[in-house]
Backbone:
């Protein structure tokens, strides 16, 4: 890999690993006192996919199914998700967001967007923002980051 591409990959990994947590921890709102970054991430995935199995959720979060199971239990107890058993096989489950879960994600998305806009205001030119969008659309296409 050439040095410039290697640098770009390293920067991308750093933003992915540390960016979300840093942003969530720097926003002073009760949502982030009530729910961990991992739980918010789980809700984000459910919001994007609309319904998903616990196993697929574990794959997308890069964790063991037991970690997902514990998080799901808490989110279900708080009324943020529905866990529906399969009619064909009682072991199979489908996860969906409740209206309350969707509300939490809408609030979280708005808080995060506002915070990022505040951080970047005056730091990026319009042409840089356009370039950022172009590059991330290209990376998304290459990685085929779409709902399955």
Residues:
């Amino acid at each position: 890999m050439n040095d410039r591409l290697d640098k770009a990959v390293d920067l991308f990994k750093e933003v992915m690993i540390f960016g979300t947590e840093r942003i969530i921890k720097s926003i002073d709102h009760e949502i982030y006192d009530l729910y961990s970054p991992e739980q918010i991430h789980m809700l984000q995935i459910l919001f994007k996919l609309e319904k998903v199995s616990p196993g697929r959720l574990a794959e997308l979060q890069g964790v063991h199914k037991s970690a997902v199971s514990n998080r799901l239990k808490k989110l279900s107890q708080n009324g943020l998700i529905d866990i529906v058993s399969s009619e064909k096989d009682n072991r199979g489950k489908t996860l969906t967001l409740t209206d309350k879960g969707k509300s939490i994600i809408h609030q979280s998305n708005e808080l995060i967007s506002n915070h990022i806009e505040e951080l970047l205001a005056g730091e990026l030119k319009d042409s840089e923002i356009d370039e950022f969008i172009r590059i991330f659309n290209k990376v998304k296409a290459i990685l085929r980051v779409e709902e399955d």
